[in-house]
Amino acid sequence: MLNRRVTFWAALTLIAALALSGCAPRAGQGSVADDADQLVIDLPALVLDFGMDGTPAIKNAALADLVDTLGVPLDLPVPPEMVFLMEASNIQHIQVSNTPDGLLLLVNGRSIPSISYKGDSLSALPGTLSSFGMVVPMADLLFALVDQLGIGVIAKFPVAPGAEMIPLYIEGDSSSAMAAKAAQEEFLAAVGTPPRINLPIFYEADGSFSIGDLSIEEMNAMTDYALAPLAMTLSQLSIARTLGISQLGISTNVDGITISIDGNALPTLDWSDGKASNLLELITTIPVLDMAMPGMGSLLPTINQILPLVQATEFDLTLHF
Q1: pLDDT of 28-49, one tens digit each?
Q2: 73-122 pLDDT, tens digit each
Q3: Global pTM?
Q4: Fewest beta carbons within 10 Å, which of 25, 107, 157, 164?
Q5: Which element (helix H / strand E) includes 277?
Q6: Handedness of CA 60, 91, 179, 105 (dihedral sign)
Q7: Of 151, 190, 116, residue with least CA distance to 15
Q8: Which helix (H) or strand (E) holds 183?
Q9: What are the Cα distances from residue 173, in Å, to 39, 84, 187, 222?
């Protein structure tokens, strides 16, 4: 226990020292509650400059030297091929920032789908991780302190010759995000109440299932066996039994995608406020996408058109084992 405490405070010392050695304004900085009776850590973002060889540095000081000084091991190099891809795609920087409401992810200063942990979702996470055999040291303490910690890291990559410098944080929405939000508002104004789809699936011991009050035979007759792949094998059901899971839910709405286990909601994948549109716009700038998925670029306009409908729909899929 003593070693864990030493490691925890050494890590905080490392973060503070590095952030003050080479820092920049952090997205969400200043949102941590200012309470004189509580531990509060709200720091600028630590900036790591990656060279073409993948080695990070802070203000031209080798990161390894700073780490060795504090005696905390930290190995952060990335493959040179990754740095080359970032430069070729004009991805100049990626930021990860912790705020009281969630873990923000930004690429080129724009927010993309991030992790939101509003409400009690974090309190359910340690137990869920434990049920899957994943033990996070001091998880209860860390998750309890998360709304009192404001820390972040910005990874900067070489800028391609001739490319304009992109600010580390861009205020306001991009044009695609604004268009997506306007389309969503227009759709909701037209339909009045958001569309709702609720699919409760109940599994039997042999892997067969029913949806609500409809049996698998009735569903197959209605859908021409389109739902047959939902049936589970005995080995798949045994995994749920081994993990002690009796109910698994996936829900979506305008805020994002949430997974719940036995009624306990986990942190949400937040796609609100144009984050999904920012990601789609970013995808179009990645050359390797065209090589790996030919024709994907031509589908993006269609995806952008249906995205407001998908995000506005309240969808609930619940598997009962």
Answers
A1: 776 676 666 677 777 788 888 8
A2: 555 678 999 999 899 889 999 999 988 888 999 999 999 999 998 767 77
A3: 0.78
A4: 164
A5: helix 275-283
A6: negative
A7: 151
A8: helix 175-191
A9: 33, 28, 19, 44
